[in-house]
Fold these 2 entries.
Entry 1:
Amino acid sequence: MAGSLPATVAAVRRRLGSRTPDVAVVLGSGLGGLAERLTDAVRIPYAEIPGFHVPTVQGHSGELVIGTLAGRTVVAQSGRFHLYEGHVADVAALPARLFGELGVTTFIVTNAAGGIRTTFRPGTLMLITDHLNLTGQNPLTGAVVAGEQRFPDMSAAYDPELRSLALDVAREQGTELEQGVYAALLGPSYETPAEIRMLRTLGADAVGMSTVPEVIVANARGMRCLGISTVTNAAAGVSDAKLSHAEVMETAALVGKRLGDLIEGVVARLQTR
């Protein structure tokens, strides 16, 4: 899929004109409302972008939105390509490769996740400090893509300075922001209670089915990454409640404004690199 990157980039650049985004935001399940904050926006449906796929999951609208947020040119990715939809990691990470080619230097990812830490409640925002890639796939497998490192250092995959900035903004806004490790699994089935106990033993605080492929590619391209999980439900075995995607969507919608305020605050205080 990396072979289609030039066509992908060319198609998007034709629609951008003279705009050059330096910040990209990936909007997780039910979190697409942030795209509505962008002014003077250009909307590009995925169907019009070579190599992009129309999402099949509720809560992922399937468009790129390029506009202005807090005085900066931002590209918002509303809808992911998930591994559980049958895509390989190379496909899931194609938007990150596109953003790197467009000149993005700050990459902000959001997702909906299940809470493994017992103190997490639905609606908790968790700043991702690190991740566990348990998907069995890596988007860097195969030939090296131009502009990417073969063996990128992942010891600070989520930029410490950006994390510190997010904590400062959250404190100023009166938003509670937890910190923890995100585990990515293949999906689409939710985890069993035994799997959640395993993940807790491995050091995970939240679990989901996305984010990691994009972050790996972003690090290989030298982009600074910031990740925020919305804990939409307690993971299996943490409570007696049955898990459902409807609950994920409902909680994400309730948290959307808080998360949007936080991201907009971070973007407003970014320093030009």
Entry 2:
Amino acid sequence: MADIHVSSVVAPEAVLADSVRIGPFCVVGPHVKLGEDVVLHSHVVVEGRTVVGPRTQIYPFASIGHQPQDLKYGGEVSSLEIGSDTVIREQVTINPGTAGGGLRTVVGNHCMLMVGAHVAHDCVLGDHVILVNNATLAGHVEVGDNCIVGGLSAVHQFVRIGRDAMIGGMSGVENDVIPYGLVMGDRASLNGLNLVGMKRRGYAREDIVALQETYRKLFSGNDTGTFAERLEEAGAEGSGSAPVRDVLAFMKSVSSRGLLHPKKK
């Protein structure tokens, strides 16, 4: 049987693994599913059609799965999925999906959402994502694996952030961030590549060099031709490098937001 503190209120319909631990003054709704070894430390509210994966821990005053902050939401049945081994710290808020975004919000495995972070409706976060204190994602944001969103940053709705990107603290991100990009600024701009992150994750030196050369060709402003022409040329020259392919595929995919570029000198 799950270990549930006497002061907590858990709906009888909720599905709890036997190894779940629920501390004092928590509330768990009737459509919630908590996996093996999930821990709600205290004063946690989990509502809606929320599934929490094994070994995830949720800290005090987090509000998980409540109705989206979207005026278009009409009470439709939607869900929130949180992966395994994720840490959700104090005062984090995560909302389920809406009809306008596939009725589904997803947080991946091995993520860390620090104090006061917010994940709005219909967001999709990959694995090993870190949202630093008070980072805010508006609705329909996509965040790739291994990304870090710095403290007090805000990401505009429908923005995509490619894998292994780094968003500096106090940034306002209004457009898409390429994979492996380094972004900062109150109205954020592309500031190069997340080379430190790539080295820490063991990317081969030749892949990093190939990506640096592709970045130079695309964004330095020294090459002739339109951006679309440079993009096609980079694709022909850098097709042997997986990170280059990641960046080019991201740039060519459909998006409602433009790409972040470096600031013009």
